[in-house]
Write a structure and sequence with these properties.
The chain is α/β, with parallel strands linked by helices and 179 residues long. The protein contains six helices and ten strands, in the order E-H-E-H-E-H-E-E-E-H-E-H-E-E-E-H. It is globular, with a radius of gyration of 15 Å.
């Protein structure tokens, strides 16, 4: 199973994500996010992680990520627009005429609030990455019920809005062992 941890802001967090066995990291360059990382700092983090783990620059629109996108492996946005190495995030089914590398289902639109998954998600779960409100307490039920291609965690491994190294370790250990 593909597991991404999003909203990282430090080299230490990247090192721990790699050590713990995450498949990818996300760095948010959407200015209104509490996980916002300045594009200059985001580029530094992308360069630090390059070749060690898959990297996603994350924003609401292509405009949010444009300064840093070329330095990351993938561009994760909520805007339905064709960009290179697209990782589309949406609470709607993916458009048939759009080429994307990854599809993230996120009904919370980055807020981290968990919602039940609609039937169409269940029908294509093996092709998508589930996101939004996942945590150590609900992840096993989600994995067992939907059998997704992947999962994305962010607020579920935070204390007071900051990534917690121990929560990152605990989450991936639980997620890897509940299948």
């Amino acid at each position: 199973m593909f597991i991404k941890v999003c909203g990282l802001k430090t080299k230490e967090q990247i090192d721990k994500a790699i050590e713990y066995g995450y498949d990818a990291i996300g760095v948010v360059t959407y200015p209104k996010s509490k996980r916002y990382c300045d594009p200059k700092d985001a580029i530094e983090l992308a360069n630090y992680a390059k070749g060690r783990i898959k990297t996603f620059v994350v924003g609401m629109t292509a405009e949010d990520v444009k300064e840093a996108a070329d330095f990351f492996d993938y561009t994760q946005i909520y805007e339905v627009i064709q960009v290179p190495n697209l990782a589309l995030s949406s609470k709607e089914p993916p458009p048939k005429d759009l080429n994307y590398d990854y599809f993230f289902y996120d009904a919370s639109i980055g807020s981290g609030v968990f919602e039940e998954f609609p039937d169409w998600v269940k029908e294509i779960a093996c092709e998508i990455i589930l996101s939004g409100g996942l945590n150590k307490d609900n992840i096993c039920a989600v994995i067992r019920d939907l059998k997704p291609f992947g999962i994305n965690i962010s607020s579920g491994v935070e204390k007071e809005g900051v990534k917690d190294i121990e929560m990152m370790r605990e989450f991936i250990t639980i997620a890897r062992n509940c299948q």
